[in-house]
Amino acid sequence: MSPASPTPHPDVCLLCEPIVGAFGLPAGTPFVSIKGDPSLRETVPLRPRQHSRLDQIAGEVLQTCAALLRDTGVYAIYIGFNSSEVRTESIFNPFAYEVHDAEDLVKPGYTARHFVTVPYDEKVRTIAWVRAMIQSGPLRHYLPAHWLKLMDTGSAGWQPLAADRIDEIVHSFNVLRGIDGYYLRNAAISLSEGIVRASYNCDGTYIVRADYFAEFVRVNTP
Predict the structure, then answer these.
(1) What is the DSSP track for the chain?
(2) CB neighbourhood size of 4 (10 A)
(3) Which of 8-12, 67-71, 146-150 has the lowest mean pLDDT?
(4) Closest-CA residue to 206 (of 158, 160, 172, 157)
């Protein structure tokens, strides 16, 4: 017999939902914005723009990042324009991430040494397979009823981002980085969650559905 569900604490909000849940943004929500630290927003005009090492080779770095998402086991990538850091997550080791220097990433032979080529369709099938394996395995017995419903609904409705959308999304980061005043500081894209995260020098962040991101950039740039 399953134990009875515990009585919720009176201060627990049963209607509150995460900004981004286990399966990405809520249905019908193309993006959300998060305001950053007010002290950073207010001091933006006082902080002169500094071009990073990545800025000098941004086109090459972004082209490489797009290729990693499209042609290798990488399913999530973070690009730190200020720090020149590129962080990757791969289906070959899904519980870890790697950190790369942007200048190293574009050196001849670097990606061939550190990343495994795999067809895009095989990668997204693997993401779906791993999810199904975990969610239908022994761990399923620990899930409360509402989580079971979320997991089953999310798995059944998951649609991978089309491979031909990747280049446009990644190269849009350069457009946002080139904005005067409030410009992109770092960005991340997750194929498994289908979202793009973009944080600005004012410390504000937008979380955008990946298949809407190119349109989001067109609407929000001159």
Answers:
(1) -PPPPPPPPTT--SS---SSBTTBSPTT--EEEE---HHHHHTGGGS-----HHHHTHHHHHHHHHHHHHHBSEEEEEEETTTTEEEEEETTSTT--EEEEHHHHTSTTHHHHH--B--HHHHHHHHHHHHHHHHHSGGGGG--HHHHHHHHHHHHH--PPPGGGHHHHHHHHHHHHT-SSS-EEEEEEETTTTEEEEEETTS-EEEEEGGGHHHHHHHT--
(2) 6
(3) 8-12
(4) 172
pTM of the model: 0.86
> How many whole angstroms separate alpha carbon 170 and alpha carbon 196?
9
Structure confidence by residue, pLDDT tens digits, 145-171: 888 888 888 777 788 999 999 999 999
Pairwise CA distance, residues 109 & 114, whole Å: 9
Residue 196 has pLDDT above 60, yes or no: yes
On the 0-12 / 13-18 / 19+ scale of CB atoms within 10 A, 83 is middle
Per-residue pLDDT reduced to its tens digit, 170-179: 999 999 998 8
